[in-house]
Amino acid sequence: MEVVKIEKMCKTYLMGKTHLQALRDVDLAVGQGQYLAIMGPSGSGKSTLLNLLGCLDRPSSGRYFLGGSDVSRMNDTELSQIRGKRIGFIFQSYNLIAQLNVLENIELPMFYQGVSAADSNRRACELADIVGLGDRIKHRPAELSGGQQQRVAIARALANDPVILLADEPTGNLDSASGAEILTILDGLQARNKTLIVVTHDEGIASRAQRTIHLLDGRIDRDCLN
Question: Does domain 31-60+74-225 have CATH number 3.90.600.10?
Answer without folding.
Answer: no
